[in-house]
């Protein structure tokens, strides 16, 4: 479950967001992704309310820190604030939200330090390209990176060219954010043919988009959901399969990359 823009509405909307997160955990979802950037901590606070009465070992909690908090001291300061808002003693994964000016070696040093303290179980990065990952691997303890999180949906397929193969080779898990193109599908302009494929399969476009992202069982997608009905669609997407002809048609509508290109970001 993604949490971008969560906690930024009125009391009624926030209560609804708490209930949706609870619904997800009650129905088998076991990963929640958030960040100190989301509402400047408001999303983490909502997540903290939602997870209060759940077994902490039954799900994984991921948060991210700003690139200007990427020194050892500021990493720990940010982490302690996030843990307090989240009402938990540890994170399963802590991610550098995107690259900044702090040398990667210094950031890794800080992440390894909080890992040794037991404040996080593992760490990773977000919005990293293949060259970024290669540079990360060259610094001390850089090989301990467990996760990279990039934009990935039917219309943004740049990660397929080299990032997914690189991460598979080096045992780095991949998380794809914004399978629906963010709030109101703001960054996702779908062609009519996609709707035709969904109609032929008797599924919603949302179900098609999410099922497509996770089609190979090698991507963890983190959609945000604004209603229980939409959440039920997300759960159903995990059971949807595509025929070779359907995948070929979607490839024609939105071709896979044939060369290295700058990654899309939101």
Looking at how many chains there are and whether they match, the oligomeric state comes to single chain
Structural class: alpha/beta
CATH hierarchy, class = Alpha Beta
Number of helices: 10
Low-pLDDT ranges: none
Number of separate structural domains: 1
- In whole angstroms, the N-to-C terminal distance is 17 Å
How is the CATH topology named?
Answer: TIM Barrel
Largest sheet, strands/sense/barrel:
7 strands, parallel
Instruction: Provide the CATH superfamily.
Output: NADP-dependent oxidoreductase domain
Shape field: globular
Major sheet: order of its strands?
1-2-3-4-5-6-7
How much is the radius of gyration in Å?
Answer: 18 Å
- What is the CATH architecture annotation? Alpha-Beta Barrel
Order of helices and strands: HEHEHEHEHEHEHHEHH
Work out the strand percent: 5-15%
Share of helix, binned: 40-55%
Number of β-strand runs: 7
How confident overall, as mean pLDDT?
Answer: 94
What's the short story on this structure?
By secondary structure, this protein is α/β, with parallel strands linked by helices. The chain contains ten helices and seven strands.
